[in-house]
Amino acid sequence: YNPPYQYGCLQNSVSINIDDVWSSSINLPFNFCFYGNTYNKCLIGSNGVITFYQTNNTPGGYSTWSFSNNLPSTSLFVNSIFGAYHDFDPSVGGEVGYELVTMPSGCRALIASWSDIPMFSSTCNSLLYTGMIVMYENTNIIEVYMKEKRVCSSWNSGNAVVGLQNATGTQAVVAPNRNSLDPDWTTFNEAW
């Protein structure tokens, strides 16, 4: 666990005081290879996901929060990075944002962060999530950092997932014990 950047105060805010939305389309200044396809734009969801699939996921549109399937599954966002995907509520507080940075190696990276975002449900708003997804130019490495991830077991059965899924929902890579239907989990200072 060694996040390469800060969680808060990123240049571009997303879903400001709005719950369950996709960002506007984000143009990457580099090509990113994901499951054999190359992309130069993505969307950030307020519930801890980045997607390259913009056909059914409308920029600025609704980003669903309810799920009860393990990866891989066409019921979950396809062509996406989940880190951690959980029902958060940025309308109550916290900060969702991204920044394109040049790393010490000289390569660029997209840093997307969810900082001090309350869990959804009035009974769980005091439980916070802080995490980040980093996508690196050239290497196509994806890193997920979770500073704090709590559980709201009374909402959406506490489901959360950390992983990747291809464009057809047939292939996935999931962090051990971090799939949607694994037992509810809390973590601090975890990285994948």
Task: Compose a concise summary of this entry.
Helices cover 0% and strands 41% of the residues. The protein has 192 residues and is mainly beta.
Give the helix/strand layout.
Elements (H helix, E strand, L loop, with lengths): L11 E3 L11 E9 L2 E9 L3 E3 L28 E6 L9 E8 L5 E11 L9 E9 L5 E8 L11 E5 L6 E3 L12 E5 L1
Antiparallel strand pairs: 1-6, 2-3, 3-4, 4-5, 5-10, 6-7, 7-8, 8-9, 9-12, 10-11
Architecture overview:
This protein is mainly beta and 192 residues long. The chain is built from no helices and 12 strands. The chain has strands at 12-14, 26-34, 37-45, 49-51, 80-85, 95-102, 108-118, 128-136, 142-149, 161-165, 172-174, 187-191. Strands 1-6-7-8-9-12 form a 6-stranded antiparallel β-sheet, with no helix packed on it. A 6-stranded antiparallel β-sheet has the order 2-3-4-5-10-11, with no helix packed on it. The mean pLDDT is 94.
For the structure shown, list the relevant keywords.
6-stranded antiparallel beta sheet; mainly beta; about 190 residues
Q: Using the CA coordinates, give the radius of gyration.
A: 15 Å
State the total count of DSSP E strands. Answer: 12
- Apparent shape: globular
Q: Give the amount of beta strand, in percent.
A: 35-45%
What is the makeup of the main sheet?
6 strands, antiparallel
- Overall pLDDT confidence: 94
Structural class: mainly beta
**Ranges with pLDDT <50 over ≥5 residues?**
none
Helix content bin: under 10%
Strand order of the largest sheet: 1-6-7-8-9-12
Please provide the ordered H/E string of secondary-structure elements.
EEEEEEEEEEEE
Please report the distance between the alpha carbons of the first and last residues. Answer: 8 Å
Number of helices: 0
